[in-house]
Amino acid sequence: MVLLSFDWFLIIEKAILISIVIVASLVIAMYETWGERKVAAFIQDRIGPDRAGFGGMFQPLADGMKLFMKEEIIPNSSNKFLFVMGPGLAMLTAMMTSAVIPWGGHLEIMGRTVPLQIADINIGILYVFGVVSLGVYGVMIGGWASNNKFSLMAALRGASQMISYELAMGLSLIALLMLTGTLSLRTIVEQQSTGHWNIWYQPLGFIIFLVCALAECNRTPFDLPEAESELNFGYHQEYSSMKLGFYLFAEYVNMFISCVIMATLYWGGYDIPFVNDAHLYDIWGNWAAFLQVFFLMGKVITGIFIFMWIRWTVPRFRYDQLMNLGWKGLIPLALANMVITAVVALLKYNNWHF
Amino acid sequence: MQSLTNRVKPVDRKPMTFLEKIYLWEIAKGMMITIKHFFRKKPTIKYPEQTREFSSVFRGLHILNRDEQGRERCTACGLCAVACPAEAITMEAAERKKGEEHLYREEKYAARYEINMLRCIFCGLCEEACPKDAIYLSQTFTPSNLTRAQFIYKKDDLLIPDPNKDPELYAKALGDRKKS
């Protein structure tokens, strides 16, 4: 009887949602690799992969197949357990973040309201930060377990880079959280649904967040852990087969997730621009929720395109430049932004009386 | 020091301006350049489907020619082998028997004719040396094979299709080339 009093519908609903989110983020990451190659090619006046399927649509499948077919090499001198765990950890931390993201409004199914979010916890953005900072472990463990000097150096670089950019990212977010007054991602989105996107109130914060997100995802101009010219290949040098694929894949999942978070925090999340969403729910019902998911995806794809566009425009920073920019540039800027926002928010709270 | 050529250009070492120091504006300018390239027409030629236009004197793989009745023109005189700077051509002559007049044009013919395509430099001197107009370089190119031995082209690989039996293939092998 104890089992029956359980809310089975909730479990089923969440299980379906989780599997959809995981599959969707994997598929999107897969097509990000295709998109990246296409964008790179177009920017370099080429046409990119176009042989497998229409416009090269099956290229990611072919790449995945190739990676699975390759011989799996585990170096003798490596720490085997950690060596295998590294890519899994990178993938795990990349996927875990998606748990708190609101993908859309809510569906009405059989008289129940099903929110399109796996877990609406009230510390959503803190959870995201906690998981993202764990992402260092995938890089670090992989680089260390390979027992290769270059891998280790690359991993150290990656770790120090991620940690130093997380600071500026956190500071830029504090300014945002002062405006929203909540940590729950769904509430943040709902506050923006009037069309007052946070990017209009926090343009500097947004730029800092964007730069730090690039650094967090290890993408060019900040792909120091993968600097081929100095480190052969980077922290995944000893990896082969799908373990290497997992590392590369985790990068794309990370990119997807950070674009989703960027859209959620600054671009209004699943809010449909110029339209009253609540009104839309009255007319279209469940279809409005799907439209919201569609618009969120549109924003995310725009973000991903900007990431790729930056990648194929800007050359890689030198390590000292990277650290200078992070510690001497972004952190003071983020601090100044935070203080100014705090002053303005306090003034507004006091009805503009000093 | 006075330079010898007066073409020395001093390196511009003036410090970065404020706008350059904050990077963002310069990066935005760079991104504008790349997005222009994004929408530019691509010069790629999708090779197997599209091919580049060749000149009519393009020198591709060799063809052993036939006359209009489908008889082999080669008489195995060996002038092409002599002319070949890469020494890629070997041949063996044989005498035409009674009843073979529909196969070979003259009394002597090449029983074996081999060109090593790995040695050949596609200079076309064999074509110029041939008095019988029997060998020429076609517009076919990029052969692919799995072994070195397969790159030694035998008579079967080289002979043009019979114009009476396979006029289409014959025309294709002939290419745009003006033939006598």
TrEMBL record, chain A:
Keywords: Cell membrane, Membrane, NAD, Oxidoreductase, Quinone, Translocase, Transmembrane, Transmembrane helix, Ubiquinone. Belongs to the complex I subunit 1 family. It is a multi-pass membrane protein. Its EC number is 7.1.1.-. PANTHER family: NADH DEHYDROGENASE SUBUNIT 1, NADH-UBIQUINONE OXIDOREDUCTASE CHAIN 1. The chain crosses the membrane at residues 6-31, 81-104, 124-146, 167-185, 197-215, 244-267, 287-310, 330-349. GO terms for molecular function: NADH dehydrogenase (quinone) (non-electrogenic) activity. NDH-1 is composed of 14 different subunits. Subunits NuoA, H, J, K, L, M, N constitute the membrane sector of the complex. It catalyses: a quinone + NADH + 5 H(+)(in) = a quinol + NAD(+) + 4 H(+)(out). It comes from the Bacteria. HAMAP family: NDH1_NuoH. This is NADH-quinone oxidoreductase subunit H. It is found in: Cell membrane; Membrane. NDH-1 shuttles electrons from NADH, via FMN and iron-sulfur (Fe-S) centers, to quinones in the respiratory chain. The immediate electron acceptor for the enzyme in this species is believed to be ubiquinone. Couples the redox reaction to proton translocation (for every two electrons transferred, four hydrogen ions are translocated across the cytoplasmic membrane), and thus conserves the redox energy in a proton gradient. This subunit may bind ubiquinone. It is an enzyme of class 7 (translocase).
UniProtKB/TrEMBL annotation, chain B:
Keywords: 4Fe-4S, Cell membrane, Iron, Iron-sulfur, Membrane, Metal-binding, NAD, Oxidoreductase, Quinone, Repeat, Translocase, Ubiquinone. It is an enzyme of class 7 (translocase). It comes from Pinibacter soli. SUPFAM superfamilies: 4Fe-4S ferredoxins. NDH-1 is composed of 14 different subunits. Subunits NuoA, H, J, K, L, M, N constitute the membrane sector of the complex. [4Fe-4S] cluster 1 binds at C74, C77, C80, C130. NDH-1 shuttles electrons from NADH, via FMN and iron-sulfur (Fe-S) centers, to quinones in the respiratory chain. The immediate electron acceptor for the enzyme in this species is believed to be ubiquinone. Couples the redox reaction to proton translocation (for every two electrons transferred, four hydrogen ions are translocated across the cytoplasmic membrane), and thus conserves the redox energy in a proton gradient. Residues 65-94, 111-140 form the 4Fe-4S ferredoxin-type domain. The gene is nuoI. Its main location: membrane. It holds the Pfam family Fer4_7. It is a peripheral membrane protein. It is found in: Cell membrane. Binds 2 [4Fe-4S] clusters per subunit. Gene3D superfamilies: 3.30.70.3270. [4Fe-4S] cluster 2 binds at C84, C120, C123, C126. PANTHER family: NADH DEHYDROGENASE [UBIQUINONE] IRON-SULFUR PROTEIN 8, MITOCHONDRIAL, NADH DEHYDROGENASE UBIQUINONE IRON-SULFUR PROTEIN 8, MITOCHONDRIAL. Its EC number is 7.1.1.-. Its cofactor is [4Fe-4S] cluster. GO terms for molecular function: NADH dehydrogenase (quinone) (non-electrogenic) activity. Belongs to the complex I 23 kDa subunit family. It comes from the Bacteria. This is NADH-quinone oxidoreductase subunit I. It catalyses: a quinone + NADH + 5 H(+)(in) = a quinol + NAD(+) + 4 H(+)(out).
